[in-house]
Design brief:
The chain has one helix at residues 2-14, and strands at residues 27-30, 40-41, 55-56, 62-72, 78-85, 102-109, 116-121, 124-130, 133-139, 143-147, 153-158, 167-175, 180-181, 184-185, 193-195, 198-215, 218-234, 252-260, 263-271, 277-285, 288-293, 298-302, 318-324, 330-343, 347-358, 361-373. The protein is mainly beta. It has one domain. The strands form three sheets. The protein has a 15-stranded antiparallel beta sheet that branches. A nine-stranded antiparallel beta sheet has the order 21-20-19-18-26-25-24-23-22, with no helix packed on it. Strand 16 and strand 17 form a beta hairpin. It is globular. It binds 2-acetamido-2-deoxy-beta-D-glucopyranose (3 copies). Residues 248-373 form the AsqO/PenF-like C-terminal domain. Residues 26-230 form the Diels-Alderase N-terminal domain. Pfam families: AsqO_C, DA_N.
């Protein structure tokens, strides 16, 4: 009974008294002990707290994570950092080994050799929101992020601890333009689902990135193109979920971001469980939104391999992205792999170059993209 009361009080503590029912207190603490009842899950945005938690407290079937990445201008080096208040039952990059629900997953390409990736456990987590920004401390891991209230900057800091012997240094992001929800700007009342039960908010669609870290004894220092979003799933609402519930919510998925010339693009093109295509594209030019769609006018396709991708077909080394911008002009781009960051069969993330053309002007740059394929 005492345990139940404590759990109830922790849930109530997480909600803003008298506020919108789906909004949260501005400072939440997460324990690695999974809550045994229904979590509060938010799929409609609050007036602020764009980068705030969407699941509280965490239980065995809900997943909430903060994603940061940067790729060097030449497309050969990269760092991705994902902060999870999530369950190992669901979204794990290491399908064979359980990971603590509170963890930071680090992926790096140092420019030579295969991609490096490992999780670092945290003993508890606090996330404080201020304006639209958030500051998160994955205690014990030595890894934290600090966001500005207006989302203009983020800093990820890595310190060595007993649980983190592998990575130290800093990763800084300075935004290049406004963030967005799936179909609209960062304001209250926006739907957050990209597919049923999968939420997404792209708080930093493109950023100047500075990475200066040491990882497993190797130095990784570059400037380039950064990105930050946060994602969540409520897997129990997805039918037939099993060991990897995230994947039962979709059949295939291409997602990525690239920078060429004055343009920054974020794109996704996915198939839901009924094979219905769902697309999204967002383009900044010199910090202004010049392309934005959540319904049509964008297509991502693999070059030289079958579409949709399946577990039995080869992975593409290139993707084409074709999008109609807000003024009717066409953005045509092709990304070409330079390195794999992580490949676990059903999920792959690559880095490389992008060549993009708008209104007859072609420019080169770098990109990072991922593929999910779940069907045989
Ligand atoms: C959030 O709460 C934690 C634990 O109560 C505290 O240590 C931390 O300083 C708070 N953070 C902010 C930014 O208020
Ligand atoms: C976790 O919370 C979600 C959302 O409230 C709920 O649908 C689900 O049943 C909960 N899972 C467990 C194992 O209690
Ligand atoms: C899409 O973009 C690619 C890369 O620029 C280009 O080769 C292709 O012709 C475009 N496809 C369409 C249908 O315009």
């Amino acid at each position: 009974m005492k345990g139940l009361l404590l759990e109830l009080s922790s849930v109530l503590h997480g909600l803003v008294a008298g506020g919108l029912s789906q909004c949260y207190a501005d400072n939440l603490s997460f324990s690695p002990v999974l809550y045994t009842g229904p979590s509060q899950v938010q799929f409609t945005s609050c007036a602020s707290q764009a980068d705030g938690p969407r699941v509280f407290p965490i239980n065995a079937t809900t997943f909430d994570w903060w994603y940061f990445d940067a790729v060097s201008d030449d497309g050969t080096q990269a760092l991705t950092v994902i902060f999870f208040t999530s369950s190992y039952i669901g979204f794990s990059f290491d399908l064979l080994n359980a990971v603590d629900p509170l963890n930071v997953y680090v992926f790096a390409n140092t420019g030579s050799g295969p991609g490096i990736s490992f999780p670092i456990a945290a003993t508890s987590v606090t996330v404080a929101t201020n304006g639209n920004g958030a500051t998160g401390d994955w205690k014990g891991s030595g890894i934290s992020f600090q966001g500005a209230p207006d989302l203009s900057t983020y800093t990820v800091t890595f310190q060595k601890t007993a649980l983190n012997l592998g990575i130290e240094g800093t990763f800084k992001l300075k935004t290049r333009g406004p963030g967005h929800y799936v179909c609209g700007p960062l304001e209250g009342g926006q739907p957050e689902e990209v597919l049923p039960h999968i939420g997404w908010v792209n708080v930093m669609p493109a950023a100047d990135a500075q990475v200066d870290i040491k990882i497993l004894g190797k130095s990784l220092k570059f400037s380039g193109n950064g990105y930050h979003d946060k994602r969540l799933t409520n897997a129990v609402a997805i039918q037939n979920w099993g060991d990897v519930p995230f994947t039962s919510a979709l059949h295939s998925w291409y997602w990525g971001h690239g920078t060429f010339g004055d343009y920054n693009i974020v794109f996704f093109d996915m198939l839901d469980p009924s094979n219905k295509e769902k697309v999204g594209g967002y383009v900044l030019k010199d910090g202004k939104v010049v392309g934005s769609t959540c319904t049509s006018g964008l297509q991502v396709r693999p070059v030289g391999t079958t579409y949709p991708p399946t577990l039995l077909t080869a992975n593409p080394t290139q993707l084409t992205i074709n999008m109609t911008l807000n003024d009717g002009s066409i953005l045509d781009a092709i990304v070409t792999e330079r390195a794999t960051q992580i490949d676990i069969g059903l999920y792959t993330r690559w880095i490389g170059s992008i060549e993009g053309t708008v209104n007859g002007v072609t420019a080169q740059g770098s990109a990072l993209w991922e593929q999910f394929k779940v069907q045989a």
